[in-house]
Design goal:
The chain has helices spanning 91-107, 111-129, and strands spanning 5-10, 15-21, 23-28, 31-35, 42-45, 49-55, 58-72, 75-85. The chain is an alpha+beta fold. It folds into two domains: 5-86, F0F1 ATP synthase delta/epsilon subunit, N-terminal (ATP Synthase, domain 1, Sandwich), CATH 2.60.15.10; 90-129, no CATH class. Strands 1, 2, 3, 4, 5, 6, 7 and 8 form an eight-stranded mixed β-sheet that branches. Helix 1 packs antiparallel against helix 2 (111-129). The protein starts with a strand and ends with a helix.
Length: 130
């Protein structure tokens, strides 16, 4: 049996996932990254996008909006600001979030405008994948 990665995905509302998986792909603010068992430790901020969990030939996708990924020898923990299963979302929900993000971007200044633009871009990418 190949090594498995202990993965936990936690939002303020609930623990969405906890278990052994083959790989997790994460949208980091500095670029997307994949985590396998025995990955080198690091921490990364997460941008709006999709987390993909691979396990035994299946893929499960979660929409995430902000948070942090903590890769340790014991596994990967993601603390998400907001997170939901992609299968629970629809185009109308994402469209509403895009409208809110466009309004926030128009009002943002300085560093906040970069964060707002990155959030909007992530939502648009999610919209295209629904």
């Amino acid at each position: 049996m190949a090594d498995k990665l202990q993965f936990s995905l936690v939002s303020p509302e609930a623990e969405l996932f906890s278990g052994l998986v083959d790989q997790v792909d994460v949208p980091g603010t500095e670029g997307d990254f994949g985590v396998f068992a025995e990955h080198a430790p690091f921490m990364a901020a997460i941008r709006t996008g999709a987390i993909t969990v691979y396990n035994d030939g299946t893929e499960t996708r979660y929409m995430i909006q902000g948070g942090f990924a903590d890769v340790m020898p014991s596994g990967l923990t993601i603390l998400a600001e907001q997170c939901a299963l992609m299968s629970d979302l629809n185009a109308e929900m994402i469209s509403e979030e895009i409208n809110k993000a466009e309004t926030a971007l128009a009002a943002a200044e300085g560093d906040a405008s970069l964060d707002a633009a990155q959030h909007l871009d992530g939502l648009k990418q999610l919209s295209e994948s629904l």
